[in-house]
Design brief:
220 residues; alpha/beta
Length: 220
C-alpha cells in the first residue's frame, strides 16, 4: 500500500547570506546617527621638558589654574578647597589679572584679529583682518592672557558635579567678556550687534579650558 507522506521540498538557502549582507549594507548607508561633537576647548601647548629651564617652569606655572574634582565631588583649586562661588571669583581673577600680579597669568600683546567678511575661498583676500577699534586704541597690541584653566576629575566624580564646575568656569569667562564688551562697545557681550565686535571680544578673551582624562585621585 503506497505511503500518504509527501516529500517536503528543500529550501535553497545558499543565497540568504548574500541577501542579509546586502540589507545590512543598505541600513548602514541610509541610517543617520547623532554624533556628540563635544565642547570646543583650547588646550595648552606642549612643552619641551628636555630644554626647559627651572626658571621657565616657574613662569609657566603662573599661567595654569588647576581645578581638581575628587571622587567625593569636592574640588581643589591649585590645592585649595573652594566653594562654587569662590571658584567663580578665582577663575575670573585668573582670566583678567586686573592688577598684573606675578602669581597670575602673563599677558601677550597681540593685534586682535577677526574673520574677514570679504574673504572668498581660493582668492588672495586674507582670511583674517585686524579689528579697527582695537588697532586704534591699542597700537602696541591688546594684552591677551596666556592663562589656561586645567579641569581634572577623578573616575568617581559625578557627572552632575563635573557639569556644575564646568558651567562656573564658562560663566567666569562670560563675565570677563561682558565687562570688556561694555568697556569697549558700551554693551554686554551677548548684546553686541556687530559680528566683528563679537569676534574681537572672543579674540581678546579666548576661552581656554583644558579637560584632562579622568584619573584616580581619591579624596573624601
Amino acid at each position: 500500500m503506497p505511503s500518504d507522506k509527501r516529500k517536503v521540498p528543500e529550501i535553497n538557502a545558499s543565497s540568504m547570506a548574500d541577501v542579509a549582507f546586502l540589507l545590512l549594507s543598505f541600513f548602514l548607508v541610509t541610517t543617520t546617527m547623532d554624533v556628540d561633537t563635544g565642547l570646543a576647548r583650547v588646550l595648552p601647548p606642549m612643552t619641551d621638558h628636555s630644554v626647559q629651564k627651572p626658571h621657565d617652569v616657574k613662569i609657566k606655572r603662573r599661567n595654569i589654574l588647576v581645578v581638581l574634582i575628587n571622587r567625593a565631588d569636592r574640588f581643589l583649586v591649585n590645592g585649595q578647597e573652594m566653594s562654587l562661588a569662590d571658584l567663580k571669583r578665582k577663575a575670573k581673577e585668573f582670566i583678567q589679572n586686573p592688577n598684573n600680579l606675578e602669581d597670575l597669568p602673563e599677558f601677550e600683546y597681540k593685534r586682535i584679529m577677526i574673520a574677514n567678511p570679504d574673504y572668498v575661498a581660493g582668492s588672495d583676500v586674507p582670511q583674517k583682518i585686524s579689528h579697527k577699534h582695537f588697532d586704534r586704541k591699542y597700537p602696541e597690541g591688546f594684552p591677551v592672557s596666556m592663562g589656561v584653566i586645567s579641569l581634572q576629575n577623578d573616575r568617581g566624580t559625578s557627572y552632575k558635579r563635573y557639569i556644575e564646575v564646568q558651567n562656573v568656569l564658562v560663566a567666569a569667562y562670560n563675565e570677563a567678556r561682558d565687562e570688556l564688551a561694555i568697556q569697549e562697545f558700551g554693551r554686554p557681550f551677548n548684546q553686541l550687534l556687530n559680528q566683528e565686535d563679537v569676534d574681537a571680544i572672543r579674540s581678546a578673551i579666548p576661552q581656554k579650558i583644558s579637560e584632562a582624562e579622568p584619573k584616580n585621585v581619591g579624596g573624601r
